[in-house]
Amino acid sequence: MKKVWMVGIVIFLVSRAMAEWEIELKFQSKPEVQQYPDTSVYYVEGETLYYYGGLWFLFKDGEWYESESYNGPWRETKPSDVPSEVLDVHTMRFPPPPSLETEPRLVIFAGTNVYYWPEGGIYRFGPFWYMYVDGVWYRASSYMGPWFPVGIIFVPEPVRIVHKKRKIVYSPGLVVDRETKVYYVGNAHIYRYGDVWYYYRNGRWYRGRSRNGPWIRVEIVPDVVIRVHTRRTGGPAIISPSRREEPPRRIEPPRREEPPRRIEAPGREKRRR
Questions:
Q1: Residues 70/30, Cβ–Cβ less than 8 Å
Q2: Using an 8 Å Cβ cutoff, are 71 and 27 in contact?
Q3: Does the N-terminal peptide bond of residue 73 adopt cis geometry, omega within 30 degrees of 0?
Q4: Beta-carbon count within 10 A of 127 CB
Q5: Burial, 39: exposed, middle or buried (Cβ in 10 Å; 0-12, 13-18, 19+)?
Q6: What's the pTM?
Q7: Low-confidence ranges of the chain (pLDDT < 50)
Q8: Helix (H) or strand (E) holding 34
Q9: Rounded-to-integer distance, Cα 133 and Cα 185, Å
Q10: How is the chain split into domains, by residue range?
Q11: 3-class DSSP string for 152-209
């Protein structure tokens, strides 16, 4: 019985060690982190890496990992064990990419083993597909997905080189509402009006500089954006709170000016007798 218990411990330790070495995420120096607005979560630009509460969290291929260091070793963890603040920031940073209904016709990039789609930022290299949308990389094992956001450190260098040489801007899934001139992402509650982006999530509105944020919570949203959102969701109209108006100033009636007094010219003094 004791031998069986010892074997079980060995198997557990080996499997745990394999899980820790499965993620090869190495930085030459400590990565620069930024605090996400209105949260206590820190993130690394261009990576699916977060720091919160003394721990590092990494999202890769649909799985979450945690570690005491940014270089690992990484332990796989359940999504339910990841702090909700980290999950919220991750969701806001990486909205779902557009789905592909048919397989893109790829061509090979001369001098490489990278295949690319001439109409957009989609690539295939080795066993994986890669998609670049508005500054974010996604990876999948099939063009049908599921697509998961991936840090640039996990994008093979040949794919990055080919993408850089092509110099394309790929922003699929953006639909325009002709009546209001509001653009929106087909599979997400993300809107663009003018040069500003808006995101509706869990009953709250956010504003950002790009499709991927960073998002800051706001109370005032253009009426045309709310109108398009209401029409898309089919829900009750959501009225953006009006700006706080200052109380009207009290206007005092003008004072009635008295007519200037008439000043009599000095008369001649009577000579004294």
A1: yes
A2: yes
A3: yes
A4: 7
A5: middle
A6: 0.62
A7: 1-21, 239-248, 270, 272-273
A8: strand 33-35
A9: 12
A10: 20-93, 107-166, 174-233
A11: HHHCCHHHHHHHHHHCCCCCCCEEEECCCCEEEECCCCEEEECCEEEEEECCEEEEEC
